[in-house]
Write a structure and sequence with these properties.
Helix content is 34%, strand content 22%. It is globular and about 50 Å long. By secondary structure, it is of the alpha+beta class. It starts with a strand and ends in a 16-residue tail after the last helix. The longest helix is centred in the N-terminal third of the chain and has 18 residues, at 13-30. It has helices at 13-30, 42-54, 107-121, 136-144; strands spanning 3-7, 59-66, 69-79, 90-98, 127-129. It has four helices and five strands, in the order E-H-H-E-E-E-H-E-H. The protein has a single domain, classed as Aminopeptidase, CATH 3.40.630.30. A five-stranded mixed β-sheet has the order 1-2-3-4-5, with helices on both faces.
Length: 160
């Protein structure tokens, strides 16, 4: 099926909210101590969150439109210099997700291309992203596009 990558619009919020909730559930399944539990209102909460992101001049959400259905999305943003992270200004890929039934058709690469192009047009000197440690499929995709490993997050739970 033909896929069109376009900027997300308000009519897409329910669909991207469902996908964002799916992203939350996936990460929570990877490590329920590290990631937020999705909860009952994850879809509407994520839709509200991405709706606020869409209003920002420093961020953009793109969707993969597959014959009128949202098959995936990417959320990218410009991030300022960070002394905490020891890095200069950068573009950041915060979210990328393609629904399961649409995977394997190159949609993630198309979304990444759109997001990276937007960040380049905004003057970002580099692009960073985080990926869950168990998500080896995504890591292969990112490395295949030229991303390299630079940091490793580690977590320790404290007894209370």
């Amino acid at each position: 099926m033909p896929v069109t990558i376009r900027k997300a619009e308000s009519r897409d919020l329910a669909a991207v909210g469902r996908l964002g909730a799916m992203l939350m559930r996936t990460h929570y399944a990877f490590d329920p101590q590290r990631f937020l539990p999705p909860g009952e209102s994850a879809e509407s909460g994520y839709a509200h969150f991405l709706g606020s992101v869409m209003k920002s001049r420093d961020a953009c959400v793109f969707v993969a439109d597959e014959n009128g259905d949202v098959a995936g999305y990417i959320y990218v943003a410009l991030e300022p210099l960070s002394w905490k992270e020891l890095r200069g200004p950068a573009g950041f890929i915060h979210d990328i997700l393609v629904r399961e039934e649409s995977r394997g058709a190159g949609i993630a690469k198309q979304l990444l291309s759109a997001g990276i192009d937007w960040l380049r047009e905004q003057g970002a000197p580099r692009v960073l992203l985080w990926t869950a440690a168990p998500n080896e499929i995504a890591q292969r995709l990112f490395r295949g596009l030229g991303f390299r490993d630079t940091m490793l997050e580690m977590t320790m739970e404290l007894d209370r």
